[in-house]
Known about the structure:
The chain is of the alpha+beta class and about 240 residues long. It has nine helices and twelve strands.
Amino acid sequence: RVVRNVVCLCSFRFFFFCLFFSSFLSFFLFFFFFNDTATTEIYTLSLHDALPISEGDPPDYLYFVMKGKVKITKLSQDGKEIIIEIISPFDFFGGVAVMRGFPYPANAVAMEKTDLLKVSRKDLLKILDRFPSLMYCMTMNLGDRMRGAHETLKNIALERVEARIVSLLLKLAENLGKETDEGILIDMRLSRQDIADMVGTTVETAIRTMTRFRKAGLIREVEGRVLITDPKELSALGS
């Protein structure tokens, strides 16, 4: 389902200030304080729907996640999917390819029902040219995420599986966690297959490792979501 929207130009001054402090505000203000000649499209996708972005495709659009979650993936030489990054609401993907003009370097797949806002490369480049501060903000965001992706790939190559899963859970807790009376709840459904794909191991190994964590009282399952009941002990286990 596609809904076309034309949004009006307001003051970008306040937008630049807010972009430094909150990904939510950066998305919110980007949506409402857009260029008066620009158009956007909003897509609603179901679980595991393929997005209109695949590795090698031309970089025609930048995408914002309005609701839901998207996984950015690559395929190994033996055809195994590796999850490089999870994009949460009010963040974007496809930015490096769109800004530099080279093909998308990875695939994107919806992990749950997801709403996306897409912005054409032509419109984005016009705005970046008009407001250089926006380019700086996006570059800072992309730099942080590329460093995170590098750490993920380094962990897959060098760390033992248990440490990789611990690192993954703590990272997800930091980015998506909600404080509860019983611990930190990772606010997304996380299958054993997802965990295996994110740390570069087999489903069987992910099942065994998560079972050990659960029996040790470090985690619990709450409606398909992981609750970290003892973050300090879990972190010590991975060091």
